[in-house]
Amino acid sequence: MTTQPTRxxxxxxxxxxxxxxxxxxxxxxxxxxxxTMHTGGSPRAWLVLLGxxxxxxxxxxxxxWWLQVQSRFRQRLAHAVLGLCMxxxxxxxxxxxxxxxxxxxxxxxxxxWVLLQYLSGPLWMILGCALTVTLAQSRVTPAxxxxxxxxxxxxxxxxxxxxPLIFEPWVGLSRSxxxxxxxxxxxxxGQGLLLRREALWPPVSTGPGRTGRRGLAxxxxxxxxxxxxxxxxxxxxxxxxxxxxxxxxxxxxAYLLSWVIAFGPLGRLxxxxxxxxxxxxxxxxxxxxxxxxxxxxxxxxxxxxxxTALHLRLLPAYQGLAHAPANVAIALGGAAGxxxxxxxxPLVFAGPWEWELLLALLVLALGWGWLAQLLRSARPSYQGxxxxxxxxxALLIAIGHARWVAPGPWTVIAQVxxxxxxxxxxxxxxxxxxxxxxxxxxxxxxxxxxASWSYYSPEGPLGAxxxxxxHQRSPGLEVLAVGLGAGTFLEYFFAEDRVxxxxxxxxLLALHRGDPPLIPNLARAEAQMEVRLADxxxxxxxxxxxxFHLIKLDAFTSGSIPSHLLTTEALARAWQLLREDGLLMIHxxxxxxxxxxxxxNAARHLGLSAALLVDEPQDGDxxxxxxxxxxxxxxxxxxxxxxxxxxxxxxxxxxxxxxxQPVPEHQDRRRPWSDxxxxxxxxxxx
Length: 686
Description:
By secondary structure, the protein is α/β, with parallel strands linked by helices. The protein is 54% helix and 12% strand. Strand 1 and strand 2 form a beta hairpin. Helix 1 (7-36) runs antiparallel to helix 7 (173-196). It is globular and about 85 Å long.
């Protein structure tokens, strides 16, 4: 006869589950941020990493299920091995042996090794969390097991919120690893108590028997649809924002909160009522104009409500299964959804078609249930049918909603995609030879029979900066250009110039290198060209035989900020690669984040002279010239060129020069970003 667990034991179980979930998702964000620093940092790269994380989560719950049926000796042996591996990894990270920032050693690591490091870290934490949840569920009654699973997601939710709000901006990446190591130590200690003190936490019966393959299939289906909706909504919300973990974590936190609601007290509300909430929130998500912070919050609400409605449909099957296979089924569904919408689309689709595909699957799954309820019930719940019908109508509206790439009066002639984004080439309806390049909702440049400069106008900041450099020397510039885009800027350079162009998108380079090239600007460039397929930060860290006259940083993916190129370490390294009279030009146009202030603050922190330039096309200018904002960093002789002064709006480090007296001094006091700390909240444009 086993003794009943005490009230204190229940609270200790709850604390252990909460702590393990929080530690797991702190590790996910921390190591995921590190991995994106080596893989471009685009939002879609985050999504692929999320898909890989869901695969490792499935491996963790499979291992926990296998351990549950092993002997007590094997369980303890596996726990000891797991503890050594997990603690070894996190303590290794915390003392600096695992590269937490850029350096000569880290940038030489191939991408596959970086991804292996990314997978190995969360894998040990996932094994630890999955084992914790499985062991804890075996110590409570069957009726309490769904709530305990929801508690683990609540811990994950708290960890997700704590990392971008506290640890990333205030604690830093390296010190966060130390906190993570301490959390992992406590989790392992709690697991040891679960395995060794059965008198305190006695295992109880497994409860309900198996509901068969149908129950498992039900869990996998609804979990997969919820996970897939999380992925496509995250792609929608981060299209023109930053891949800083705060924005990415917002949607994932909403998804985890849906598990807490579905498996907690709020899940007792009628399922049809959550269908109504889901339909209204989805319509609200589509009604928010454009992209940005408001759109991100609308997406988060839609994810929470819709995923709650989906997860409530699997709850009866979860309650009818033993907890270990039920947890595996949820993880399998999550991995399948991530594979369907995060990993496979860049490999098999030319455009963002996973949105329509997922919505069609949701309509099919929900419509089938709606018809089944209508047919098998002589007196169906009409209120429930109305609520579920609202959700179906919202999904049909979403299918008919405008695609992510909306060319308007332009006709799409080509669309390609890769890990980093979707690129669309379109032609004007009334000009058969006027083309443009679009990624997401951002216009990246145009070309045709006449000059089409977009935001590279000769009268704009880029033209002013190059004019200042030309004024000081004869032709023969050494140029490093991070970000290729449509390649319009190459028209500034001549045969005597040498240009090293870096871009991370294979799909974009394919548009430039086709036979014939769909984007001709690279092929017809006069300068001596070298094109590299790499992340711009990695190229900055490499040694170069000669310093550069000009370094241009314009690596936006759609409107998303390349955060790892805007840190003080990145700008300091770029400054080291310049000649004494060289110029660093950074494109900082953004509607949602105060990137100009961010870069100006970094320049002041480094003690560099910088000017903020704004180009606003006037009446009579080329209609294809667009507004842009740039920060120029260089010596005072270059920055006081008349062409630059005409466009300057603010400056730092040049207040004593008479030519700059009319320009207001830059007084922003917000902390610049670093590789260790990067808080986005102070720079959001609310």
